[in-house]
Design brief:
Blueprint lengths: L2 E4 L9 H4 L9 H10 L5 E4 L5 E10 L6 E9 L8 H15 L4 E7 L3 H9 L3 E10 L5 E9 L23
Parallel strand pairs: 4-5
Antiparallel strand pairs: 1-2, 2-3, 3-4, 5-7, 6-7
């Protein structure tokens, strides 16, 4: 049985099987530690009965007024544990945390080319809010979809009304 539990510092030594996947954005140690220190409730891990890390999610709460929201910074499941519903469980956990923090919505950025992830987020109730041009820097400067899901505080679902034009990273609020 899989356990969803808070990420700990020692997990940084055990999540290579998840983090070395080519679909996962990998960050420096200081970045993970910053999230663990500032938003510990948003940093969760899926663990097998044997103690193996199967996946994780990290995020934060940010914004103000009607833009107060939960944000998914990273979600990854190791290749051998995909298609078991772990990503959905981790997303649900982050959404519940965001509900308790009285957020209006949850958002995330995903590569436009990552059709598997886009389809999964759609099934979880997320919609494309806007396209962010050249969000992912590198060889391809790939665009991202900013996907959102309204939470119960956003009764009129204003936060998920799509923008009709793309934006650049420097225009993100």
């Amino acid at each position: 049985m899989t356990t969803i539990r808070p990420f700990t510092c020692s997990d940084l030594f055990k999540f290579n099987n998840v983090n070395l996947d080519p679909l996962t954005e990998t960050y420096g140690l200081a970045f993970y530690m910053q999230y663990l220190a500032q938003w510990p409730e948003y940093f969760q891990v899926a663990e097998s009965p044997s103690g193996e890390i199967m996946g994780y999610i990290m995020g934060k709460a940010e914004g103000r007024a009607e833009n107060w929201h939960g944000h998914v910074t990273a979600l990854s499941v190791s290749p051998e544990h995909r298609r078991l519903g772990l990503a959905a469980k981790l997303m649900h956990t982050l959404e519940e945390i965001s509900e308790r923090k009285k957020c209006f919505f949850v958002d995330l950025f995903v590569r436009v080319s990552n059709k598997v992830a886009v389809d999964m987020y759609n099934k979880l109730g997320y919609t494309v809010y806007r396209r962010v041009l050249e969000y992912y820097s590198g060889l391809d400067d790939e665009d991202a979809f900013d996907m959102r899901k309204a939470l119960s505080r956003d009764k009129d679902k204003k936060s998920v009304i799509p923008l009709l034009h793309p934006v650049r990273p420097e225009e993100l609020d």
